Amino acid sequence: MAEPLISVGLPPSSRIVDYARTAERLGYHRVWVFDSPALYGDLWVALARIAEGTERIGFGAGVAVPSLRHPMVTASAIASVEELAPGRLVTAFGTGFTARRTLGQKGMRWADLATYVRQVRTLLDGGVTEIDGQPCQMLHPPGWAPERPIRTPLWVAPGGPKGFATARELGVDGIALMMPPGEDVSGWPASALLINGTVVRPGEDHTSPRLVDAAGPWFATMFHGIWELFPDALDGVPGGATWRAGLLAARPENERHLAVHEGHGMVLTDRDRAAIAEAGEGILTGGWTGEPAAIRNHLREAGETGIGEVIFTASGPDIPDELEAFAAAVGADASSAR
C-alpha cells in the first residue's frame, strides 16, 4: 500500500502565505487551514491569499464550521477561491468542537451538518435549494463567479459512528480524521489524518525549550479536550490537576469557555507550561513527536490503515523549520506531491 501524501495544517495568520510557499517549495501536497474565528484569522481570507500567493500547491478548508456562515456565503466563497486557483481547493466540514466551544456552544448536530452540506453542493451545482424556508440559487453572471456546476470536492470530518454514518449518507468526496480511525479506510474516495508533534533533534529531551514550544501547543489541547468532555478525569492525567487549577483561576465560571482553548495549537499559556512541566516525559508520547525513524514508522502504519494523506499540524515559533524537519524525516518520496 502506498505511503500517504504529506500535507500541513495551520491556523490563519499574517504569515500564512509565507508558510504555504515554504510548504510548496518542500513538496507538501496541500495546506489545510483551520476555522476558529475566536482564535485565528478568517478562513476564507487566508485561503484566497494562499490561492494568489502560490503556484501549484493544493489547499483546503480544514475544517469549515457550517453554523458560522449561511450556505450561500460558503458557496460564494468557494466560487471566489476557485476563480483564483481552479481545481486546487478542497472544502471539508465539521461540527466545530473547538470553534463553537470558544463561543460557549456545543458542537453542531450531525443532521444539521448534513443538511448544510447538501445545500452547499446543490448551490455549487447550479441548482435551487431551500434555505430558511425560501428557494436559493447562485445567481452570479459570467465574470462574477465560475460557471456552474463548480466541482470543488466536499469532505466531512466524521467523529464517532454518527459522523461516519453521515459521511456515508452524503457520499462525500473524502473524510478528514482527527484521530487514527482504528479501522481500514481505504474504501473511502479520499482520506486524511491530522497529526501533530515535532521531530526530536539530537540531544533533545522533554525539557528542551525548542521541543516544548513546538510540541507543547498540541499536547496541551489534550487538557482542553478532557476539560470539555470529562472534566473530572483531569485529576488522573499527569499535569491535569495543575492545568485545571490554572483554568479555574483564569476566569469566572460564566466566562470560563473563553479561557479553555487559549493558544489552541499555536502557543502555550502559563497554565499549559506548568502542566507540561509536571507531565515530564509525557510530552514525548504526544502525537508523532519522535526521531525520524519513529515518524517514518507512524507514516507506514497510517498507510496500512488506508490513510491517503497525513496533515502535519505544525506549531511553535518557527513553522518553516518544523516543515523542513518533518519533510526530511518522512523522506523526499513521501513529501512530494504525486
UniProtKB/TrEMBL annotation:
Domain of life per record: Bacteria
Entry-linked Pfam families: Bac_luciferase
InterPro entries: F420-G6PD/mer, Luciferase-like_dom, Luciferase-like_sf
GO MF annotation list: monooxygenase activity; oxidoreductase activity, acting on paired donors, with incorporation or reduction of molecular oxygen
Domain Luciferase-like as annotated: residue spans: 13-185
Keywords assigned by UniProt, alphabetized: Monooxygenase, Oxidoreductase
PANTHER family, per the entry: 5,10-METHYLENETETRAHYDROMETHANOPTERIN REDUCTASE, PTHR43244
Protein name (database record): Flavin-dependent oxidoreductase, luciferase family (Includes alkanesulfonate monooxygenase SsuD and methylene tetrahydromethanopterin reductase)
Organism listed in the record: Cryptosporangium aurantiacum
